[in-house]
Write a structure and sequence with these properties.
It is an enzyme of class 3 (hydrolase). Strand 2 and strand 3 (66-72) form a beta hairpin. The chain contains 15 helices and 35 strands. The strands form 7 sheets. Strands 12-11-17-8-9-16-13-14 form an 8-stranded antiparallel beta sheet. It has 605 residues and is α+β, with helices and mostly antiparallel strands.
Length: 605
């Protein structure tokens, strides 16, 4: 059976996973009466809830005697560590672009990686049936993107298909509005080359994904670069320098069939397989026959740009909601994550009670924290900080991001003003149709921490912001942080409606009556720049006198509830987020007011 290995790359929400659903259905992977969930490739709970792909996954379909291995890649740049490794397994890529939105920053990130590896793209303009589709302009934007990314003549001569993933059709005709995906299958078979491999050479394979199984241990996924491998065959693992890390046997081999991993007895060069039997081999290692001494070159991974401190939860309510609260449990979980996710780096602090976790962005670390809290962990999370570097002259450099903002024309002035305050430089501004403007900035990552919530308020929820790591550039100096102070509880107990009613005029509240509070916990945002200690536990003094009209029912404004990402973006340097399986609370690092004042004096000195 002939073989094709392809990756599908696209921006978040451009319809990649929906298209893969239709490829399954039309290739006969599912029975006609089989019940299949929508977006079957998004198998993780968080992926289903957020509607985004977080983990790269392999799958396979058969079409008219050709086996097509498909790799579904994340569309968000924060999960780019997944994408870079995946591209070394495939021989071609399908670039999926929304017919209305066109190529976006994350598309640029992944496409640049694919073109640098010499892969030839197939461009699929998806959602062609949208009322605001502008397929011809989007195609020109794709061509321009390829030119800017340094594509060669062969890569610029790409086939074009117009498709609707939801309705399951693709065509070379821009006006087509029905049909099936046969043109896409034919284009893949015709345009993507078969794997260029040596079947008779000694077995070797580069590990690109790492998974865990409670029964089989480590499962290493990659493409067999040369030779054949059979069950129980002796194998060795080599690091990037060709040094032997471990020796063992291939105890299990799996290939992909639809959504399932299927056990196989043997695999040959070009196949994408999973292999079990080794205990220390990891991503970017080469698995080979014992006689092989040369490692396969692995794609370098872009460095992390953002770090957060994960600490043991030391609040008065610690241990009430979670069952994994010790530093040893947190350490083991983070080390396990760093093992399977090469874009994350974990370092232990001197006090052994906290860990610095460095990653690509707030979303990536936010997903890790959310996953951990669902597993029963309790954590204290610090404000994100960017990782500085030094240039060759010893000057300080910081990460910059390309920010592309789509906003209604009436809000563009506000957005430009706010971005200027955050030391961003505008690089492009153009109308994008329908009363909207597309503005591009080059901005220091530091200035963007915590801006997204403010951006949504400024644009009344209609603005769309896309960010992408650009470069390390010169340090821009101090950037103003949050404008408002916070309201801090001065006691421990349950919030009282009478007290909260009196505090409403002070600012915006984050809590509601009956909620348990503790000293040093942030219960709201102050209307003024300073922090204010308040008493939300004060109840009404009861007397024997009755007064008409004084005891009307108290009506409180509903509290402002922050999601995990909003809370992390909101906090200041002297605050942290307490994360438990049931609650997200903002608190001061030092709960005692005297301790806070002492620490503040020390910082100012």
């Amino acid at each position: 059976m002939s073989l094709r290995n392809i990756a599908i790359i696209a921006h978040v929400d451009h319809g990649k996973t929906t298209l893969v659903d239709q490829l399954f259905r039309q290739s006969g992977t599912f029975r006609d009466n089989q019940r299949v969930e929508e977006r079957a490739m998004d198998s993780n709970d968080l992926e289903k809830e957020r509607g985004i792909t977080i983990l790269a996954k392999c799958t396979s379909v058969e079409w008219q005697g050709t086996r097509i291995n498909i790799v579904d890649t994340p569309g968000h740049a924060d999960f780019g560590g997944e994408v870079e490794r995946i591209l070394s397994m495939v021989d071609g890529v399908i670039l999926l672009v929304d017919a209305a939105e066109g190529p976006m920053p994350q598309t640029k990130f992944v496409t640049g990686k694919a073109l640098a590896l010499g892969l030839r793209p197939i461009v699929v303009v998806n959602k062609i049936d949208r009322s605001d589709a502008r397929a011809a302009e989007v195609l020109d934007e794709c061509f321009e993107l390829f030119l800017n990314l340094g594509a060669n003549d062969e890569q610029l001569d790409f086939p074009i298909l117009y498709a609707s993933g939801r309705n399951g059709y693709a065509s070379e005709d821009i006006e087509a509005r029905d049909g099936n995906l046969t043109p896409l299958f034919e284009t893949i078979v015709r345009h993507v080359p078969e794997p260029n491999v040596e079947v008779e050479a000694p077995f070797s394979m580069l590990v690109t994904l790492l998974d865990r199984d409670n029964f089989l241990g480590r499962i290493l996924t990659g493409r067999v670069a040369s030779g054949r491998v059979k069950i129980n065959q002796p194998i060795t693992a080599l690091d990037m320098d060709g040094k032997v890390i471990e020796q063992g046997r291939a105890s299990k081999l799996f290939s992909f069939n639809g959504l399932d991993r299927v056990p196989v007895e043997e695999a040959k060069a070009g196949d994408i397989i999973c292999l079990a039997g080794l205990t220390t081999a990891t991503v970017a290692n080469t698995i080979a026959e014992p006689g092989v001494t040369e490692a396969i070159a692995a794609q370098p991974i872009d460095p992390p740009t953002l770090a957060m401190r994960f600490a043991v939860n030391d609040s008065p309510f610690a241990g009430r909601e979670g069952d994994k609260v010790t530093s040893r449990m947190i350490r083991d979980r983070l080390m396990r994550e760093a093992e399977t996710n090469v874009a994350i780096r974990v370092t232990e602090s001197a006090d052994k009670d906290s860990f610095e976790v460095a990653g690509r962005g707030e979303l990536q670390l936010g997903v890790l924290i959310e996953t951990m809290r669902r597993e029963g962990f309790e954590l204290g999370i610090s404000r994100p900080r960017v990782l500085f570097n030094q240039d060759e002259n010893g000057g300080r450099t910081e990460p910059y991001e390309t920010v592309v903002i789509d906003v209604d024309d009436e809000f563009s002035g506000t957005v430009i003003e706010k971005m200027n305050l955050r030391k961003a430089e505008m690089t492009d501004m153009r109308p994008s149709g329908g009363g909207k403007t597309r503005i591009s900035f080059s901005a220091p990552s530091r200035g963007l921490i915590g801006y997204h919530g403010e951006f949504l308020s400024d644009t009344r929820g209609t603005g769309i912001m896309n960010r992408l790591f650009e470069k390390y550039g010169p340090y821009k100096g101090p950037i103003e942080g949050r404008q408002n102070g916070v309201l801090i509880s001065m006691g421990t107990g349950e919030a009282v409606a009478y007290a909260l009613n009196a505090l409403e005029e002070r600012g915006i509240l984050f809590v509601q009556p009956g909620e348990p509070l503790y000293e040093g916990m942030v219960i709201g945002e102050n209307a003024k720049p300073d922090d204010l200690e308040v008493n939300p536990l004060k109840s009404k003094q009861l007397t024997n006198f009755r007064a008409s009209g004084k005891d009307d029912a108290i009506r409180l404004t509903p509290p402002r509830r922050a999601t995990l990402e909003q809370a992390i973006a909101y906090i200041d340097d002297d605050e942290m987020v307490e994360v438990t399986p049931k609650s997200i609370r903002i608190r001061k690092i030092h709960l005692d007011p005297h301790e806070r004042k002492r620490h503040k004096r020390k910082v100012e000195a």
